[in-house]
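Researcher: Next sequence.
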Amino acid sequence: MYNIAIIAGDGIGQEVMNACEYLLDKLDLEFSFEYGEAGFDCFNKNGVTLPEETIKIAEKSDAVLFGASTSTPGQPSPIINLRKALNVYANIRPIKSYRGVNCLRDDINFVIVRENTEGLYSQIEYGDEEKMIAERVITRKASERISKVAFNLCEKRGQSKVTCVHKSNVLKKTDGVFKESFYNIAKQYPHIKTEDYYVDAMAMYLVTQPQNFDVIVSSNLFGDILSDESAGLVGGLGLAPSGNIGDHNGLFEPVHGSAPDIAGKHIANPCSMILSASMMLDYLGEWETANDIKNAVEKVIAECKIRTPDLGGDASTIDITKAIVKELI
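Model: Next structure:
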């Protein structure tokens, strides 16, 4: 039995998590769910966006599923702090074309590996009424660690190239360390091709030649921005899953936010949440079931019969979830 921490958050986080739990309940696997609170609704109730109890639930679990959380003014991000608490230092965001979806190309298949613990997301800010300063923390240890994840993932996926994204022409010291660390680790993988691009050039290449990339590794903020751009190439955030992996913990979440404009309408696309659950099962070693879920999602999308409004249809969240489950059982 797998002990799974469920942190739905708020907005459509609740809705896509309900869909995900519905699917997991139909699998021939045993799960024990333990629930934690986080996000805007949690702050209104408890005065904090991420209670210590939620962190404890996540720490003792076999894996964590997180829905989405609405930004709370003046308060820290619960998902960023949860990633740090669990030391899940590698954010993995796969991007691929789906049949039946209006993708930029039909041969896109890369993954963004984003450093998850530092950079501008260190949340170190200070100043006065006239000037505010945000510290960008880049360490050699974290840079080499995330580069190693990228090269290992390239091997696992059977691909041949890792691309480093940085801005070392301007951020000479911080991104200088990131780039140098990348090439230091690359020496351990002489069979894998390497290249590097400035982040602004990379933003263009993702639109003009996305088929040319296999694994992309970058720092926290750059990786976050590029992964949202990349989701736009293949149908949007409703098809964008992610996993946060560390040495002892795994946290899985859709890339999208809480989308308060559609919360409560039950039209949110649950595929990114369900695909994140597939990544969780892969992390847990349930590779066959993880692959079956991915195949079921792909088949339902390709058939173009049942799809949520973001994909041009009028189906509800539970409609597409049931269609995916039907393909599984």
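Model: The two ends are 20 Å apart (CA to CA). The chain is about 40% helix and 20% strand.
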